[in-house]
TrEMBL record:
Keyword Transmembrane attached: yes
Keyword line: Membrane, Signal, Transmembrane, Transmembrane helix
Pfam families in alphabetical order: BatD
Name the record gives this protein: BatD family protein
Domain of life: Bacteria
Record-linked InterPro entries: BatD
Amino acid sequence: MKQFKYIITLFILLFTSITFAQVKFEAKVSKKRLGINERLRIDFEMNEDGDNFNPPSFQNFTVIGGPNQAVSHSWVNGKKSFNKTYSYFLAPKKKGKFTINQATIEINGEIYKSTPVTVEITSAVDKPRNPNDPDVVVADNIHLVAEVSKTNPYLNEAITVVYKLYVSPNTGVSNWREIDSPRYNDFWSQSIDLKGLKILNGTYKGEDYRYVVLRKTVLYPQKTGKLEIEPLSLDITVEVPTNRRNIFGERLMTQAHKTISAGSRTINVKALPENGKPANFTGAVGDFSFKVTTSKNKLNASESLQANVTVSGNGNLKLFELPKLSVPSSLEVYEPENTDNINTGLSGMQGKRSESYTIVPQFKGKYPIPSISFSYFDLKTESYKTIASNEMVVDVLEGPTNNTTSNDNLNTNGSGKQKVILNNDQFAFIKTKPNLLAMEKNNFFKTYGFWSALLAPLLAIPLAIVFRNKREERMADVVGNKIRKADRLAKKYLGEAKRALGQKEAFYVALEKALHNYLKAKLQIETSEFSKDKISDILKEKQVSQNIITEFISILMHCELARYTPITQVEMQQDYEKSSRTISEIDKQIR
C-alpha cells in the first residue's frame, strides 16, 4: 500500500512537470460582445519565445493599432517564467457574429496555432462622457469640415468644395486614412491636385486651431433642385497627453482612434431662366468670347484653307457644343478637328475650345461664309448674351468654271449641289511603281546561333551537377543556415522599419526586431538570453570598441522608450541611419 502511494505521488510530479513544460500559444480578446462604435483588443500570448509570427487576416475588422509587442521575464520561487504578447486593436466594419481565425508562430522549430475566437458585434452603444477619456478629447478638439463656395448656384455654374481637418493646438494627429470617399452624383467633378500638405493656422468657431487642406474639388451641377454632396469620412490616429510622465519628467502620450465625418451638404440648384433664352443656346454658362477665322481668303481651286470656330473664357467649357459652320455647297468641307486647351482651378474651367474645318473649293468664284452666332448665360448680369461672327468671303482665283447656274457660287442652303469636276492628277500622291529589293538568302543551319542552341543543353549538364552539389553542402550546414536565416531576418526587419518611417509604433517594433536578429546572427545567442550586460560582455570579447558598444546599447534602450514618448519623423530617420551605421561598424570590428 505504501509503495502504491509512492507510485501515485511520482506519477503526479511527473505529470505536473510535463504540464509546466508544455508550450502555450493562445488568443485572448478584451470582450466577446461589443457595439459597432467600440474597439476590440486581441492579444496573442505565448510562454516560449518564437519567430515568424503570422497574424490572421482580421476579416470584417479594420486594424487601427498594432502589432504591439511586449516581453516579460519573471522569477517566482526560483522558477523562471517567460511571456511574450502581440496585441492588435480592431474596429468592426458591420454588425453580426464573426470569427477571428487562427494565428501561427514558430517555436523551437515547431509551428503552433491559436484557437479561433468568435465575437458578436451589436448596434452602437452610448458611452458616458469622461473628460479624461481620449475619445472625448478627440471629439472636442478635432473637426472635419466641408466648405462649399456657394449653396444656391445656377445650373452648370462652378462651385468648389474644400475639405479641411481642424486640430486644436494641444492635440496631435499622427495618421489618417479615408474610409468613405464622397461620390458627386448629378455633378460634373474634377479634383484639384495638392502639392503636399501644409499645416496652417486659423480659427474654428472663434477658437484658434491648426488645420490642413485634405482635398479640393470643383463641381458643376447637372440637375436642378436639391442635390446632396456625400460626406468624406476619415479614420484618424490621435496622440493626446495623459497625466502620466516618463522617467525624464516628460508627459506621456496615448493614442486614440476615431472615425470622423464632414457630414453631407445640400445644394439648391436654380434653373436657368426661360425668359429671353436664345434658340441656339446649348448650355454655355460663364463669361466667354467667340470668333470665326480663316487661314486665308484667296486661293486656287483644289487648294485648302482652315476655318476655326473658337470659344474662350471662364465657364463650363467642356459641357456644351460649339456652333456649326455653314458654307456654300460648292465648297467641300471635312469633319472638324477638336482642340481643347482648358485648365481647371478653384474658379472653374478656364481656356478655350476650337473646331477646325478643312475647306476645299472646286470652282473659280467668290463664296460667302455666312455669319454664325454663339449664345451663353452671363452669371454677372444673370442674362443671356449672343455674339455673332462677321461674314467672310472666300475668293477662288483659278480653277474650272461652274456653268450650272450663274448664282451657284452664292448658294448657301445646299439645295442644289454642283457637279464636281475632278483633276486628272487627283491620285498623283499614290505610288504605283514600288522599288522592291530581293531578300538575301540565309542558311540558318550553318550559323553560330544554330550550333549554340544545339550545344548549350549539353554544356549546362555539368554546371547543373556542380550547382546541386553546392546546394547539398549548403543545406547540410545547420549552423550556417541558422546564421544566414537570422541575418536575412535582420535585413528584412530593417527594410520593414524603413517602410514604416512616420508610423512610430510599427517603426520601433521592426527596428528592435532587426537588432535582435542581427545579434542572433553574429553572437549566436537566443532572444530569451538577451540582456544588455551580456551583449556588452560578448561584444568586448569580440574586440568591438567601447563607443560602438555604448551606441548599440543606447539604440536598444531608445527603442523601448520611444514607444511612450512623442517622436518626430526626423528623429525616426536619424535612429534608422544610426542603427545601419552601428551594425556596419560592428561587422568591421568583430573578430
